[in-house]
Amino acid sequence: MRIMIDTNIIISAIRNPNGTPFAAYAKASQSPYKIILCDQIVDEVRRVFNRKFPDSIPLIERFFTWALFEVVSTPGQEEVDEKENMIRDVNDRPILRAALKAKVDVLITGDRDFLESGVETPKIVTAAEFISDF
Predict the structure, then answer these.
(1) What is the residue-wise DSSP string for 31-89?
(2) 106-108 vs 70-72, strand pairing mode
(3) Cα separation of 11 and 71, whole Å?
(4) What does the buried/exposed string (b/e) look like for 75-112 if buried means 16 or more CB atoms within 10 Å of the residue's CB?
(5) Which residues, 6+ apart, have CB-to-CB distance to 55 below 8 Å?
(6) Each residue's pLDDT tens digit in the chain (134 positions)?
(7) CB 100 within 8 A of CB 114
(8) H/E run at residue 107
(9) How far apart, in whole angstroms, are the C-alpha atoms of residue 37 and residue 18?
(10) Which domains does the chain have, with CATH numbers?
(11) Element (H, E) at 29
């Protein structure tokens, strides 16, 4: 099962190894799951750490060094899917586009724009829902 984990979950997991986002990440990193990240998510994580947690930049770089995931390219505008219009925040649409192209089964996020979108494929869940339902 292919799992994409959104930026907010990754940041929370790195910042708090005792929290639900970390538990969801840890579960998703084990068989039968495979974590897929798009390059936009990796870039967003780095930007947020540079802006909000500059003292923790070595932590994020260590995470990217040892974490088990596949990185896929974020498709450009020429590959727009009609499902994207269900996502309110236009900045989140490329992440959905990447999830669709990578044939992700589940997107784990805390972002209401995804959670309230009505998108059914991939299945969009919170970290707590992933832990309890998968």
Answers:
(1) TT-EEEEEHHHHHHHHHHHHHH-GGGHHHHHHHHHH---EEEPPP-GGG--GGGGG-S-
(2) unpaired
(3) 17
(4) beeeeeeebbebbeeeebbbbbbbbbebebbbbbbbbe
(5) none
(6) 999 999 999 999 988 999 999 999 999 999 999 999 999 999 999 999 999 999 988 888 888 888 889 999 998 877 666 778 889 898 899 999 999 999 999 999 999 999 999 999 999 999 999 999 99
(7) no
(8) strand 106-108
(9) 22
(10) 2-133 (3.40.50.1010)
(11) none
Residue located via tokens 């292919």: 2
**Strands 34-38 and 70-72, bridge-based pairing:** parallel
